[in-house]
Amino acid sequence: MALARLGWITPIWIRKNEAESLLGDGNPDEVDAAFVEYYSNEGFTRYERLMRELPAANNRQWASLIRQMDAAYRRDDHAIVVPAAFVVLEGVLTRGQDNGPNLRDIVSKRVPGPPEGYSLHRVMWLAASELIGGLYAHHDFDGDAPPTLNRHWILHGRAASDWSQADSLRLLQACYVASYLALNAG
User: Fold this and answer.
1) Residue 50 — very low, low, confident or very high, per pLDDT cuts 50/70/90?
2) What is the pLDDT of residues 124-139, one digit of tens each?
3) Own/partner long-range contacts of 55-61 (Cβ < 8 Å, ≥24 apart)
4) What residues make up the domain containing 34?
C-alpha cells in the first residue's frame, strides 16, 4: 500500500522482497528511480514483458494504441505515453459500465470483502483502489496544479506535459494491473 500512496502499483509477477526493495525508505524520487532501474535492468526484459502482456490481457481493442505507446516510450516521448495510458486505463476500469460511472467507486466496490487472512488478489485491489483514488483525485482547475499525475488535469489539457519516464511506467503498470484484476474479478 505504501507504493500505491507514492503512485505505484506492482505487476503481478514481482516478488515481495523486490517490492520492498523498490520502496526503500519511501522517498518518492528514489522510488521513481528504483522503478525506472527495475524496468531498465536485465536487458529491458521486464519492460518488454509488461508491454507484451498488456494487450494480451483482454485489451485487444487498444492493441494499436499500446504499440504506439511502446514506440513513444522507447523514444522517450512521455508526453504521448501518459495521456494515452489514461485512455487505456479508463477503458479497462469502465469496461461493461454504463453512463460514465465514477471510477474510484468502481474500484472501491470491487475490493473483496472483509480481510480474512492474506490474499494477493485482495492486496492488489486495495493497492489499485489507493492508486486510482490518487490519479482521479479532485483538484480545482482554478487552483494550483496537483503535485502528482491527475487524470482530470491531464486529459482536460490543464497540466504541463513534462512527464517523465517514471510517469509513463507508473501508468503502464496501472493499466497492466487493472487489466489483470478485471480479468480475474470474480
Assistant:
1) very high
2) 778 888 888 889 889 9
3) 57/176, 57/179, 57/180, 57/183, 58/179, 58/182, 58/183, 59/88, 59/91, 59/92, 59/175, 59/179, 61/91
4) 2-183
Give CA 153 to chain center in angstroms. Answer: 16
Cell of 177: 494491473
| Residue among 35, 39, 59 nearest 49 (CA) | 39
The pLDDT value given to residue 132: 87
Write the single-letter amino acid at 12.
Answer: I
**CA terminus-to-terminus distance, the chain:** 22
Does the pTM of the predicted model rise above 0.85? yes
* Sign of the alpha-carbon torsion through 124, 163, 38, 71: positive
- C-alpha cell belonging to residue 9: 502499483
CA-CA-CA-CA torsion sign (11, 145, 139, 84)? negative
Tell me what pLDDT residue 78 has: 96
Domain total of the chain: 1
